[in-house]
Amino acid sequence: MTVAVEPARVFGSGIRRREDPRLLTGTARYTDDIVLPGLAHAAILRSPHAHALIMRIDTSRARTAPGVLGVFTAADTDGILTPIPCCWLLPGSKLKTTPYHPLAKDAVQYVGDPVAVVVAESPYQAQDALELIDVEYEPLPAVVDPQKAAQQGAPALHAEAPDNVAFHWTVTGGDVDAAFKCADVIVRERIVQQRLIPNAMETRGAVAQFVPATGELTLWNTTQNPHIVRFVMSLVTGIPEDRLRVIAPEVGGGFGSKIAQIPGDFITVFCSMKLGRPVKWTETRTENYQSTTHGRDHVQEVELAATRDGRVTGLRCTVWAGMGGYLSTAAPGIPTILHGLMLSGPYTIPAVKEDVYGVYTNTTPVEAYRGAGRPEATFMLERMMDRLADEIGLDPVDVRRRNIIPPFQNGHDVITGLKYDSGNYEGALAKVLEHVSYDALRAEQKAARDKGRYIGIGVSLYVEICGLGPSQVAGAVGFQGGLWESAIVRFHPSGKVNVFIGASPHGQGEETTFAQIVADELGVAVTDVKVVHGDTDATPMGWGTYGSRTTAVGGAALAIATRKIKDKAKLLASHLLEAAVEDIDYSSGRFFVRGVPDRHKTIQDIALMANVAWNMPEGMEAGLEATSFYDPPNFTYPFGAHVAVVEVDPETGHVTLKRYVAVDDCGPQINPVIVEGQVHGGVVQGIGQALWEEAVYDDTGQLLTGSLADYAIPRADMLPDIEVLSTVTPSPHHPLGVKGIGEAGTIASTCTVYNAVIDALEPFKVQSVRMPLTPERVWRAIREGAERGAGAPPLDTLGAP
Amino acid sequence: MYAVDFDYYRAGSLADAQKLLGDHPGAKLLAGGHSLIPLMKLRLAAPPAVVDIGRVAELRGVTLSGAAVRIGALTTHTELAASADLGRAAPALAETAAQLGDPTVRNRGTIGGNIAHADPASDLPTVLVALDARINVVGPSGHRTIDAAKFFTGLMTTSLEENEIVTSIDVPVAQPGRGSAYVKFSHPASRYAVIGAAAAITLSGGTCSSVSVAIGGLVAHARRLPSVERALTDQAPSESVVAKAAAAVAADLGRDVSGDIFASAEYRTAVAPVYVKRALLAAAARASAR
Ligand SMILES: Cc1cc2nc3c(=O)[nH]c(=O)nc-3n(C[C@H](O)[C@H](O)[C@H](O)COP(=O)(O)OP(=O)(O)OC[C@H]3O[C@@H](n4cnc5c(N)ncnc54)[C@H](O)[C@@H]3O)c2cc1C
């Protein structure tokens, strides 16, 4: 008699990503690699003005240029394209949408707003012909700062919103005014969450093939959510959804910048419809910077009320969130639902209030960028925690501990109305502090300071909302779609498995991790499972990959589908083994008669028998596959605690990040190596915001950081090794307990590094420096501190003249 | 990013390159292409023709000959960084090449292209000026040699005349007692120099018998800092003496410093002495070790 040995679970093992060989050997195929017979090339003429009326467009010279197939402006799209819809219509916020035409109609609202398109036989000819289009503009005053744009007398962008306010959204909980009235201590800060450019390695692009004879459109599109693209493309072009196929080939990163449907996508499709030829459009990096969505862009005024012994009693803030020239697909939800509802973070705060103004400005539309709303919320809170600590003379860790929510396994109601699923914030904090030997680190800092070296330590906690989310909640908060996911799991006769998912991974590694889930659930080898995604004709419906939701929602759909398969397989096994189903046991891919392990069928045997269907039980359908739609009962709430150590060069203001430690809790980890990679990338993008990145516009709305030579993104040699640790607190409502890890690092790291730098500057009594913390800004803050005196080291001890 | 249409010629030899330039008015030389091609793709430059000298073997390589090392114009930054001869003769130059740009830029970019392009934020001009390098060129009116300090004349302008080609650069071999160093404040995005300071010091009997120091990045072109040199000459290079000498940078720069959105002119002017000080201290430390 053989004893069934439970094989090691592949769930939890750091197997290599199966995506990597094709990515690393250059054989992956992106949208720009798609070549079709008769392919034509589009180039888009973009506004050089941030705000102007279009008086006249003369395309006659361009139309006769060599190789040109067509030149189109907004007038040509009348009756063919509708404006691009905004898909997050926040209720109760007086939301004012405005017509967002793929090609600008009478006015342009930002530098980069599309004005005309040329289609030619080659991309060079298209580019040459662009220069032959004459556009007469009447420039108008522009406004780029969201707070200024909301002030009286600011230049107005749209007649529909003469005060530029696209919406005003509020969240309240408890009696915040009372909290401030009786506060022992109030700290205030104005924080600028500067505008960022997402910088996916692959810029945006599309290949559209419209076949006039059938009225069918195939669109290859670099997107995070092909099913949403199909839906919205159908609305804008009138091509019925059943004739519309969207394929997301290899997608070279998104970070939120490939969620929205942007003008270029519609323009490309329009050109193919007009010309009856396949048309390709690929953004240059310059275009990408000007016209693919940006992130963040908040001006925040924050106040925190507390008792003298460090208990927070209230948090009150006003945020002006720049929306850019038009409301992008999901834009209104980001500084509100994904931001304001997370205001109290991992702390018990009895009263909160936030007013968020979404403001039109003459800039590129703003959308989700990794973390989307949550980094901006975490920053406010964690910054204010440090300010409070400073004000009352407590260690930043002690202040946090006085307010932290105690551990909970199954639900915790929060003042903003959310219910966190599970959390052990103290556990993560204790782990990170122990790992860095916090007390010793503080002692080292002091010793260094005595020698004129300025070391700073930053500690942050975070909790994030992800796994979006219950569709009922989506509907209630105005999201114009659902937020469930689906999966099909199909056994082939040979026992191999295909998984079809609606979500659309683009670098996160779900081809690997989803195979790991299936392997364990069905008892097959992980190499026998292949995951198919990114083609609306091949996969079931899903709402896409963003908001750290693919595993939290799509992974759940997958787990449930595998369990349905197992149920059916068990019935078939009982039939084939001629035993009652109650007497059938299952262990790692084998069904056997209880007590008689030799009488068994492997799941592959069952798959074959189900597919040939020679001997099925009465009423059982052929085949072995299952579909599941999973609509989560709640969001998931990953959390963590991070520590950064920096050193500031007082002579030049340079910040060196010496150490970064992340403790994250995303529940059970399907693949810890992939988790580590996600944390690395996320942490680094957050550090980028703290130290280097900003999309800078001048007052006239020109983008001054127009290329990678001006816009600094972090590179490996600018960073220490990121130390990644974790704790594990399962989500009580997810079938696998998992929560999501895609954005965690970004949410925590900006503030952790920022707090560390401010801590390093403590002798100079610096309380805030605008991000990014460039050498010049830090140097000025030091000098101003030294000049203010008040115990700061005098200027001449800083080395520099 | 698509360049305007242009013709492409590949030169087989230096003489061939000269002829091609003569035959095609407005043609541009193409070496590593890492300055010219970006300009063409952004359509900021639109030469009717390019003459590719990338395979002209006689323009390549580092050779030691007596008191100088000769560096062929086509020598890439990677080759500069890896050259053992250069590492001994002019360590500051080899080190500078090693921290310039990123690996791709270093593998393609050449010293000749770098100096001919004369970007104010380039690194090599500053070092060459500090090291008293001489630049050999050939043109329609024959060969000539130009002192590095006179080669750079303004923002992206040099004393090269029409159709003159840089063939090589001669750098004096460091004698015992001499040390050199380059200290750079890199722009976090472009990696070009926000400020670059290069220094060479000869020590005899504990004092500086000769000091040469140059700065780049913050002014229109690399230039020497005579006030700093004077202040340190014949002094023992202690930290405080060097710091004091470096403070004279202000006198040499005057109001010539320019700034941008990343670092203002005021800030660059204020921290320039820090970089000069660090370069001088590093050069002095090496001088005393040799
Ligand atoms: C991303 C990036 C980062 C960079 N970072 C740095 C940096 O940190 N520091 C730095 O110093 N540089 C930097 N560079 C510039 C780099 O060093 C270039 O390679 C160099 O400036 C030009 O050399 P090239 O061989 O590529 O010249 P090309 O681009 O081929 O030519 C540049 C110009 O010089 C002319 N030219 C070329 N060779 C000759 C010759 N022999 N005689 C006469 N004229 C000639 C050409 O006609 C052209 O006008 C960077 C470049 C890039 C793209």
**First CA to last CA of chain A: what distance?**
86 Å
How many separate helices of chain A? 20
The CATH class assignment of the domain at 428-462 and 637-801 in chain A is: Alpha Beta
CATH-derived topology of the largest domain in chain B: Uridine Diphospho-n-acetylenolpyruvylglucosamine Reductase, domain 3
Write out the strand line-up for the largest beta sheet of chain A, numbering strands in chain order. Answer: 3-5-1-12-9-10-11
* CATH superfamily membership of the domain at 428-462 and 637-801 in chain A: Aldehyde oxidase/xanthine dehydrogenase, molybdopterin binding domain
Low-confidence stretches of chain B: none
Number of strands of chain A: 28
Based on Cα principal axes, name the global outline of chain A: globular
CATH C-level class of the largest domain in chain B is Alpha Beta
Describe the protein in words.
The complex is a heterodimer of chains A (801) and B (290). The longest helix of chain A has 27 residues, at 550-576. Chain A has a seven-stranded mixed sheet, with helices on both faces. Among the domains of chain A are: 428-462 and 637-801, Aldehyde oxidase/xanthine dehydrogenase, molybdopterin binding domain (Aldehyde Oxidoreductase, domain 4), CATH 3.30.365.10; 484-630, Aldehyde oxidase/xanthine dehydrogenase, molybdopterin binding domain (Aldehyde Oxidoreductase, domain 4). Chain A is built from 20 helices and 28 strands. Chain A is globular, with a radius of gyration of 28 Å. By secondary structure, chain A is of the alpha+beta class. In chain A, helix 10 (374-392) crosses helix 11. Chain B is of the alpha+beta class and 290 residues long. In chain B, 36% of the residues lie in helices and 27% in strands. Chain B is built from 13 helices and 14 strands. Chain B has helices spanning 14-23, 36-41, 77-82, 84-89, 91-98, 103-108, 111-117, 124-130, 148-151, 226-232, 239-246, 249-253, 265-289; strands at residues 7-10, 28-30, 49-52, 62-65, 68-72, 134-139, 142-147, 152-154, 157-158, 165-172, 178-186, 193-204, 207-216, 223-224. Chain B has a five-stranded antiparallel sheet with strand order 4-5-10-6-7. In chain B, helix 10 packs antiparallel against helix 11 and helix 11 runs antiparallel to helix 13 (265-289). The chains are: A alpha+beta (801), B alpha+beta (290). At the A-B interface, helix 4 and helix 20 of A face helix 13 of B. Bound molecules: flavin-adenine dinucleotide. Flavin-adenine dinucleotide is lined by residues 28-36, 38, 73, 100-101, 105, 108-110, 112-114, 116-117, 119, 122-124, 165-166, 190-192 of chain B. Flavin-adenine dinucleotide binds next to strand 2, helix 2, helix 6, helix 7 and strand 10 of chain B.
